[in-house]
Every structure is written in C-alpha cells, then in structure tokens.
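Appendix B, example 12.
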Amino acid sequence: MDAVSFIHKIRTEFKKRSEQEVVMLSCSALGILYLPPFIIYRIINEDWSMAVIDSLVFLIMVLFFRFNYMKGSILSTRLTMSAFLMIACMAVVYLKGISSIFWYFPAVIVVYYLLKPIHAVLISLSSAVTLSFILYSSLESIVFASILVPCILMNLILYITFNSYAKIEKQLTKLVTIDSLTGVRNRRSLTQELANIVMSQRRIFFNISLIMFDLDNFKKINDEHGHVIGDEVLIHIAKIFSLNIRASDSLFRYGGEEFVILLPDVNLPEAFTVSENLRKLVAASTLPSGITATVSMGVAQQLKAETAVEWLKRADAALYKAKQNGRDQVVISQ
C-alpha cells in the first residue's frame, strides 16, 4: 500500500468515528510512537524506575488503541484512560520533580475531551491537589502558588468552555434530530437509527419490528378546520403514541401525517397486537376541536440480510394496502 492510499484509509476511518474515539486513538498512537526512544534512553542511562513507567505506559497505550479501535467509544474505557493519564503524570512528577509538571496540562485537556465536564473537573482537580502535596515540601511558597493557581485556573476555563460546548452540541443535536412540531424524533434520526440497527443485526440478529402509520383523511381535517387545528391534531396523535409505547420503543415523524415506530425485541405477531391496541386507542380518542380520527398501519419485522430501505418499503406497502382496504386497520407484511 502506498503512502497516499494509507493516508486516505486513515482519513476514511477517522470520519466514521466520534470525536472522543479520534482523541483516544490519536493519544494512544502518539504514545506508541513517542515512548520507545525514551524507554531506550532510560535503559542506557540505567534510569530503571522511569524505564519501567515508560514501558508500562507504552503497553497500556497499545491496549487502549486496540480496544478502542475494536469496540469504539465506551465510557469505562474513557474513564480508565483519563485516570491512567492523571496517575502517570503524578508518578512522573513524584520521580522526576517539578521539571515534569508540564505533562499535566496536555493530559488535562485530553481528559476534558474524553469525559463530561463535571467528571473531567473532578478527576483533574483531584490530580492537581495530589500534585500539590507531592511538590509542597520541595518548593518555596511563591513557586508552589505559581504552579497550583494556573492548574486551578486552567481547570476552571476548560470546565466553562467544554460545558458551554456540550450545551451547544445538545441544542444542535435536538435541532437536527427532533421534529419541531410534534417533539418526536424526525426522519433524519430514523435514518440513522435504522443504519445502526442494520449494522448490529450483522453481528447478532434479534427480533425487531417496525410500524408505519398515518392519519386517515388528514387533508379533509386541514380543509375543514384549518392547518392550525391540523397541526394540533398531529401533536395530539404523537402524544397518544408516545405515552402508550414502551421506553425502549422509538417514535419518529416520517413526514406529513406519517409516523414510524420501532419495536425492539418484538416479533411480527406481537407487533400486530401492539398496532391493534394503538389503532383502537386513537379511534376512541377525542382530538382537538372535537375531531375524531383513525389511523392505518403497516407492520413489518426485519428479515435477515434486509437493508433499511427494503424494510421500510415492505412496511410502506403494507400501509398502502391498509389504505386500499378501507383504512382504520392494520396490515402485516408477510
């Protein structure tokens, strides 16, 4: 493989991964590349304690890289790596003295990238306090303060920065994945969820069913009562379904008056029963402005090796059949 192909492969791989995974992989890779010369240097100079620490860090970085590459961004791994970085910094400072304190600062930045701000500030500030105990007896008060205060200030700035970033990211995610009218997840979110399910099914296949439904004669509701009432009806329908499905189920607005429900660990007969109960519930409900309405539903259980598009298409065909057969009914895709 030539250099250009290798770089292209690396870029493609990184695009598939989250920011936290990229940080962990990058830190591990840098440690793997950076440490061997220092290990050799320590051995030549018979600095055995540092040679052991550097060798241990090198082995752990190899393990982190392999585990994160195979498993992705897992909280336990991020916590372990963060704690390890802080412990390694404290060990180096304890053995080599104040000259090694600069390693604390990049390590803390990495910790903030890996963890939630509240967890990061607890770990990094605990490390700063521990470092102050290690250094206090060997430094003048003014020198000690000139080290401790910047550590605390850096943590404060990083906490504010990353906490603000987390809030902005949460708001942006909500804008991208939540339907602004009904408050349920939108079509973009459904597409991503189905892609994740299809990938998971390739490893371990499990029962999962999909219900596609829409409101019967919704155009008539809009024509007779206006679009404002039509929107209120959609909001009410979404609320009925949200309150009557399991916490593990997911409701999405697919478009217009059409919705999709994902039912994990539910086979086709069970999905049919769920659909019938929901259909009857809507038919018995009084919607805004005294409107009564019905829904038609198509149900499909995912098949082995079936793509998301094929799965949705079968559910949509079943829904279309329910409409053709007179509406207000459930049709399953065989």
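The CA atoms of residues 17 and 220 lie 46 Å apart. The chain has twelve helices and five strands.
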